[in-house]
Each structure stands twice: as C-alpha cells, then as structure tokens.
Specification:
The chain is mostly helical and about 120 residues long. Helix content is about 50%, strand content about 0%.
Length: about 120
Amino acid sequence: MAVVHERHNASKPTQVDPKTGKPLPATAVPPRSASPSLDGDGGSGFFGSFFASKNKKKMAAMEPPPATLKASGTLSEKESQEVEVIKLLITSYFNIVRRTMIDMVPKAIMLNLVT
C-alpha cells in the first residue's frame, strides 16, 4: 500500500503559493483504521458491499450479470489506489509461482532419474 501511495503522490504536481513561491501544505487526510472492518458496516470500504447482507432473500434473488461489461467512467482516488495494490499483489503472486515452477523442474527430472 505504501508503494502505491508513493507512486500516486509522486505523479501529482505540488501546488505553489503564487504570492510567496513556497509549496502549499497537503490537504489533511483523515486517519485510517489499522485494519479494515469486514463486518458489513453499511457497505463502506472495499469489502463492505460483499459482506453486508441485511436481507437474506435479496442475496438469493440476485440478477444475472449483463452479457457485456463496459467501463463506467473514472475511478476515485481511493479506487485507483486499490486497483494498483491489486495489480501489484497479482504480479507478486505470479512471480512467486513462476519461481516455484522453475525450481520444481530439476527436482522432477532428478526424481525420474533416481526411480
């Protein structure tokens, strides 16, 4: 998350006060909780909509997804950061699996030669 936050802040130009020429302080960011809540607190947060089920009958009668999906406009700053985090996690996972598979090839060859 820190890597994505640094990348996101690096891409933003710093605002300069036209009178003094000094950089303006960044807007105050509200403090975040240490761990996201997964108890469905009204649908807030990334996973809130998945776990918020006030009516079990509505969950069973969900509509099927549309035949074609299209992008629906621009993402908010928080959503774009979440997308970047997910991309980094998927890339990291792929690299770990690839290294594991590369390590397994010689082991499999030796196993077949010994037996």
